[in-house]
């Protein structure tokens, strides 16, 4: 007996929800954030975010009015900040899907208190991502040319182009992520509806809750739909960044035309996405007093994933360099030497330092469990991953003909679009934190020990039918 | 004003264990038109109620196949029939280049099947339900566990059904009007 107890304490991880919660206290803790009037901290952050959004509005407005000549693009570098920001934001989104879908399929129950959060991050990041190809086309009013819509010109898009695959991949990704997120929200919207004090809140939440009342026949279809959505999202998320990498890999530019790109991009996406989850979750758990739900264990688990994916990314950087030399292609090996020691050497070494070197600190458990250190390191990863995309895109600046070499310098409008996209992201995210439950209430209740009908706390004199007696027996071991 | 008709009975249960036990009791007593209400899905409840498998996967399959077929048809017809343009010597249609878009549209329509299938099978949105009138039932999205029996059930009897619910641990057994 004592051996069994000892094993239970050391082998089994700490509880997913801390601090003796009841079902009701979970509802209270999560809904309180939504129902209380906005705090000063929230208002100040929201004002900052709106300022960023205004910067975006001006930058994009001027771009549409004047044309893409206001950006720092030149002939060899015809893809500048717009593609860097696009890949950066799509990548950020991937951790949300990974947490909500892949960890769900692997029955990683610790995901439940961070998945809502991460899914919201996905949707807002993909909105930011979609913005950049849209405005990058220059004449945004002709964007519908990219869609297979019957038109008066009798033209159809070219399905042999990876850029068109990208249109389908990213818009499918956005739609499926939104559906997944909304499906998860339905029971929690019903909770907010049933607690609503004002008529406006009652009807607003009620409309989106679709009249959910927790009938078991509904839960049955709901759980099945949720499982299938997770199963669909898992390959989808891998396909999206694979197709994004095809934008580069199917070209004949040295440094881009490599088969390592799809897995390398996917690993990088997960890496940067988890860093962004931490950047958002560490302050939010503090501000909204959700430390008992987003526990140190959650942060530590995410830090471990950052450590692993950071090393995968590091491996890819090294392998790229090796293959460039091993290929024997003069253009290929020169491109990599130029990346590391050419005019953009500083970007290359920022990438290495922030993505490969600093995450090594997460080998130490002390650092993994330290909130301030985790927050700072997550910012480093965000910076490093933005620079990774910058480094890849800047392969363009010295192409095959030295006479056309040039140096890309972003203008104030490039920077305005980048800063402004953060404004858009944080505006949406802060609105989400204020008006929707940041933690999946029904799901968290479902992983609490007392949610199991066979929990020890319910005295053992129930007489269950034979099929349940087995499950009960498993729980009562030791 | 016409007299309100009785919709059924509802009882509250203390916890998921009692809820599961009671659902089994009703199943064994031969009830069909009863429903279990809980703030989260209770593990093992589908068996306890004797429900058959969800039909959502079939709708998803239909959606996925539709997505796949329409994507292939779209790419073949628009590229090889309606608007053939020779680019880089590539074939006008090939499964290789059609794969990414076919995959994406299959996933998209499967996801529509899952979400709208679930909403349709659950007959949502349902703005009104007789149980909305019962004050204690508001806790179903917080920490309340309930079982209701409809008068439409062949075994329904106001007196005997009430006694059964009480014997299974149901509290506050209440008559619900339509």
Overview of this protein structure:
The complex is a heterodimer of chains A (478) and B (178). Chain A is an all-alpha fold and 478 residues long. Chain A has a single domain (18-139, 158-453), classed as Formate dehydrogenase/DMSO reductase fold. In chain A, 68% of the residues lie in helices and 0% in strands. In chain A, helix 12 packs antiparallel against helix 14 (371-393). Chain B has 2 domains: 6-53 and 126-177, no CATH class; 56-121, no CATH class. The longest helix of chain B is centred in the middle third of the chain and has 27 residues, at 56-82. A 4-stranded antiparallel beta sheet of chain B has the order 2-3-1-4. By secondary structure, chain B is an alpha+beta fold. The model of chain B has no long low-confidence stretch (mean pLDDT 94). Chains A and B meet through helix 2, helix 6, helix 8, helix 16 and helix 17 of A and helix 1, strand 2, helix 2, helix 3 and helix 4 of B.
Query: Total helix count of chain B?
Result: 5
Helix and strand run of chain A: HHHHHHHHHHHHHHHHH
Helix content of chain B: 40-55%
Give the CA-based shape of chain B.
elongated
Beta strand count of chain A: 0
Report the radius of gyration of chain B as a whole number of Å. Answer: 25 Å
Q: Could you tell me how far the N terminus lies from the C terminus of chain B, measured between alpha carbons in angstroms? A: 14 Å
Largest sheet of chain B: 4 strands, antiparallel
Q: What does the radius of gyration of chain A come to?
A: 25 Å
Provide the succession of SSEs of chain B: EHEHHHEHE
Measured distance between first and last alpha carbons of chain A:
6 Å
Q: Which strand-content bin applies to the residues of chain B? A: 5-15%
- Kindly report the greatest chain-chain contact and the residue count on each side: A-B, 74 and 73 residues
Structural topology:
The complex is a heterodimer of chains A (478) and B (178).
Chain A lengths: L1 H10 L11 H13 L4 H27 L14 H25 L9 H22 L25 H34 L3 H11 L6 H34 L11 H27 L8 H31 L3 H12 L3 H13 L7 H4 L2 H23 L18 H24 L5 H7 L18 H10 L3
Chain B lengths: L5 E8 L2 H13 L5 E4 L7 H5 L6 H27 L12 H27 L23 E6 L7 H10 L3 E7 L1
Antiparallel strand pairs in B: 1-3, 1-4, 2-3
């Amino acid at each position: 007996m004592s051996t069994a107890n000892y094993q239970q304490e050391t082998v089994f991880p700490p509880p997913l929800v801390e601090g003796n919660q009841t079902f009701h206290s979970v509802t209270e803790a999560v809904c309180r954030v939504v129902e209380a009037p906005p705090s000063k901290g929230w208002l100040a952050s929201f004002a900052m975010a709106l300022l960023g959004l205004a910067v975006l509005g001006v930058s994009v407005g001027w771009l549409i009015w004047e044309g893409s000549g206001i950006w720092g693009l030149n002939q060899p570098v015809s893809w500048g900040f717009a593609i860097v920001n696009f890949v950066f934001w799509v990548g950020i989104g991937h951790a949300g899907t990974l947490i909500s879908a892949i960890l769900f399929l692997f029955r990683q129950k610790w995901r439940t208190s961070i998945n809502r959060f991460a899914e919201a991050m996905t949707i807002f990041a993909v909105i930011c991502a979609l913005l950049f190809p849209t405005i990058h086309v220059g004449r945004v009013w002709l964007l519908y040319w990219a869609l297979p819509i019957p038109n008066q010109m009798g033209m159809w898009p070219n399905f042999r182009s990876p850029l068109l695959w990208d249109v389908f991949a990213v818009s499918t990704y956005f739609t499926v992520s939104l559906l997944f997120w909304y499906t998860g929200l339905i029971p929690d919207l019903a909770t907010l509806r049933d607690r609503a004090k004002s008529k406006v809140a009652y009807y607003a939440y009620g409309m989106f809750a679709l009249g959910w009342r927790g009938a078991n026949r509904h839960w049955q279809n709901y759980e099945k739909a949720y499982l299938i959505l997770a199963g669909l999202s898992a390959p989808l998320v891998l396909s999206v960044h694979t197709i994004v990498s095809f934008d580069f890999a199917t070209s004949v530019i040295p440094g881009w035309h490599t088969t390592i790109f799809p897995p390398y991009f996917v690993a990088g996406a997960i890496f940067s996405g988890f860093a962004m989850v931490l950047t958002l979750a560490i302050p939010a758990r503090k501000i909204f007093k959700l430390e008992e739900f987003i526990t140190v264990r959650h942060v530590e688990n995410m830090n471990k994933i950052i450590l692993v994916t950071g090393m995968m990314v590091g491996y890819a950087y090294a392998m790229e360099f090796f293959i460039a030399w091993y290929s024997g292609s003069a253009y290929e090996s020169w491109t990599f030497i130029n990346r590391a020691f050419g005019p953009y050497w500083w970007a290359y070494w920022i990438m290495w330092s922030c993505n490969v070197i600093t995450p090594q600190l997460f080998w130490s458990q002390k650092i993994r469990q330290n909130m301030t250190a985790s927050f700072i390191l997550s910012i480093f990863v965000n910076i490093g991953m933005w620079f990774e995309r910058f480094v890849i895109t800047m392969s363009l600046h010295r192409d095959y003909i030295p006479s056309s070499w040039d140096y890309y310098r972003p203008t104030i409008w490039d920077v305005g679009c980048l800063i402004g996209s953060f404004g858009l992201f944080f505006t949406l995210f802060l609105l989400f934190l204020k008006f929707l439950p940041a933690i999946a209430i029904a799901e968290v209740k479902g992983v609490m020990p007392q949610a199991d009908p066979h929990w020890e706390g319910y005295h053992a004199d129930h007489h269950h039918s034979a099929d349940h007696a087995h499950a009960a027996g498993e729980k009562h071991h030791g | 004003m016409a007299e309100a008709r009785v919709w059924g009975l509802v009882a509250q249960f203390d916890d998921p264990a009692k809820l599961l036990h009671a659902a089994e009791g009703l199943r064994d007593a031969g009830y069909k038109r009863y429903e279990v209400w809980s703030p989260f899905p209770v593990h093992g409840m589908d068996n306890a109620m004797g429900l058959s498998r969800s039909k959502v996967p079939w709708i998803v399959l239909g959606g996925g196949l539709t997505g796949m077929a329409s994507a292939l048809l779209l790419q073949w017809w628009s590229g090889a029939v309606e608007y053939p343009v020779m680019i880089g010597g590539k074939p006008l249609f090939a499964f290789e280049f059609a794969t990414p878009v076919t995959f994406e549209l299959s996933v998209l329509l499967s996801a529509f099947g899952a979400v709208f299938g679930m909403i349709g099978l659950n007959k949502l949105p349902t703005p009104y339900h007789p149980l909305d009138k019962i004050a204690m039932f508001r806790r179903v999205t917080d920490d309340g566990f309930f079982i209701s029996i409809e008068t439409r059930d062949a075994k329904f009897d106001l007196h005997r059904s009430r006694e059964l619910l009480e014997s299974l641990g149901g509290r506050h057994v209440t008559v619900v009007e339509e």
